[in-house]
Design brief:
Largest sheet: 2 strands, antiparallel
Shape: globular
Oligomer: single chain
Helix content: 55-70%
Length: about 525
């Protein structure tokens, strides 16, 4: 599985993304890291997702889940044997994303924080008081007023832990430093962290982890789990620090040396340290992925010598971009070392499908990439000049989003989309692209998803009569009403005499026009001249 088809939820997800920008701004003003805020909100909503009591009253997630599952299943026939658990886990984060953002906005709201901290109540809804008022306010914002009843017994969850941390901070002396890490308000206990999709699917596929004692959320071994499974899981962990004072420092240095040795062995074998914390590669009882994740999370606490030792093993062991990108780059580099550098001028022909998709995504968003990412792409052969050669390749099929963006800009500049084939805008064949969309919609006999977006830009972008007629109608209308200040005439636009002659001709041959054409002509005739 490489993607989830979320087209049916596009508008909801876009609204949530815009809302998240506001959440980031509020959180940063309060010295809250957006990643921590999102992680806590996600843990809260995932806790609801796993509760049967929530689903008994939830009315929104069910239809979303069905639509996403049906849309994604069409693209992935290999999932025919999947059960409900796999699909629920795969589309979970997409279904919950609007609610995650809404909860995050509530958590960073100073008024809601004050409501949670009133009367010194750390629990959420233990009896009456501010906890119950907070849960009721949260349920009202989410459109789920019954949430207060559900959270009545949720005093051990991440939301209650956050509320207790808020109470502690409110009771701290003025000027006291804000607690960070596991004692801060945004810390999510390991028991509350939701299972990641890849790990969860592997557990569902593993009969040893699907028994009555297995837990999908925390990954802790249950009572019904085989003893061998529990013992192996107990061994797969990063050693904890022990001792006090100088002994603690020595123990910390010893643990770092052990982790560094494991990292060195991994680099000798694979050539990098882009290891995910859920990678599952455990050697000699040491979880290198989790150890590296902890080092990245606390990179500021590393000594200069320790940081330099890790950089010597892999200069990008802690990149400022997602680790998934770094792993994909290493995979691409292996292919380049075997087959030679990539070229933009040959349209990436001959490359594997997975590499083509990844490189095309990098080319599309090349200007937004970090300088280090562009430098790494240059090592693959994809320099700035090669990106320009890729865009200059004749007959380029541009992504749908590019076409829609050009159409939106053209409509904002000229007020319509009555465009024919010869028109090229900023190197994009807008006329040909629009004609292709018109033909596709007519062949289907119904509006397409893209057609709805184009209709919002121009209701007559796909008329049942010639596009040239519609373009003359727009010209005549603007000559009669005056061209708005925000618009400008398009190339080869007719003058007012030509438009007036065209309107007289349409009025004379009105009985021969289609009914909707007649309505459009009548609209022009009713305008003052």
């Amino acid at each position: 599985m490489e993607f989830v088809d979320a087209g049916d939820l596009a508008m909801e997800l876009i609204r949530a993304q815009r809302q998240w920008v506001r959440v980031e701004r509020i959180g940063q003003a309060a010295d809250a890291t957006p990643r921590e805020v999102f992680g806590l909100a996600r843990a809260v909503v995932c806790g609801w997702w796993d509760r049967k009591e929530f689903w008994e009253r939830e009315a929104i997630w069910g239809p979303r889940l069905e639509r996403l599952t049906a849309a994604t299943r069409r693209w992935c026939p290999d999932t025919a044997g999947w059960g409900v658990e796999q699909w629920r886990l795969l589309v979970r984060d997409v279904v919950m994303f609007p609610e995650i953002v809404a909860v995050a906005e509530t958590l960073v709201d100073p008024r809601m924080q004050q409501l949670a901290a009133e009367n010194g109540s750390g629990a959420l809804v233990r009896g009456r008081g501010s906890g119950e008022r907070f849960a009721a306010a949260l349920g009202k914002q989410l459109g789920r007023e019954w949430l207060v009843e559900l959270e009545a017994d949720g005093h051990g969850g991440p939301l209650a832990s956050w509320a207790r941390a808020v109470v502690r901070e409110q009771g701290s002396p003025a000027g006291a430093p804000v607690r960070q890490g596991r004692f801060g308000r945004w810390w999510v206990h390991s028991a509350h962290r939701p299972v990641q999709v890849g790990m969860g699917l592997r557990r569902l596929a593993d009969p040893l982890s699907s028994g009555p004692g297995a837990r999908g959320g925390s990954g802790a071994a249950g009572a019904g789990e085989p003893a061998a499974r529990r013992n192996s899981r107990a061994e797969v962990r990063v050693p904890r620090r022990a001792g006090q004072g100088r002994g603690l420092e020595q123990r910390h240095a010893q643990l770092f040396a052990e982790g560094l040795e494991q990292a060195r062995l991994h680099v000798e074998r694979f050539g990098h340290l882009a290891v995910a914390h859920t990678d599952g590669r455990v050697q000699e009882g040491f979880d290198l992925g989790r150890w590296l994740a902890n080092r990245r999370a606390h990179a500021a606490s590393l000594t200069m010598e320790q940081a330099e030792q890790l950089r010597c093993l892999d200069a990008w062991w802690n990149p400022p971009w997602p680790l998934d990108w770094q792993r994909a780059w290493h995979r691409a580099r292996i292919h380049v070392h075997e087959q030679g550098p990539v070229h933009g001028g040959d349209n990436l022909m001959g490359l594997p499908c997975w590499l083509q998709r990844w490189l095309r995504h990098q080319i599309t968003h090349y200007e937004q990439l970090h300088d280090g990412q562009q430098m790494l792409l240059a090592e693959l052969g994809l320099t700035t000049s090669e990106v320009e050669r890729f865009h200059a390749w004749p007959g380029r099929r541009r992504p749908t989003a590019d076409g829609l963006a050009v159409a939106r800009a053209y409509a904002a500049r000229h007020g319509h989309l009555a465009v024919s084939q010869p028109l090229v805008v900023d190197g994009f064949a807008l006329g040909t692209w629009l004609n292709r969309q018109r033909q596709r919609q007519r062949s289907l006999g119904r509006p397409t998803r893209l057609g709805h977006h184009l209709t919002a830009l121009d209701a007559w972008w796909n008329p049942p009569w010639p596009v040239a007629w519609q373009r003359m109608w727009w010209a005549c209308r603007y000559h009669l009403t005056g061209l708005p200040d925000s618009l400008e005439w398009w190339a080869a636009a007719p003058n007012d005499q030509h438009a007036a002659a065209w309107l007289r001709e349409q009025s004379a041959r009105r009985p021969l026009l289609q009914p909707r054409q007649q309505s459009l002509v009548d609209e022009l005739l009713s305008l003052p001249r």
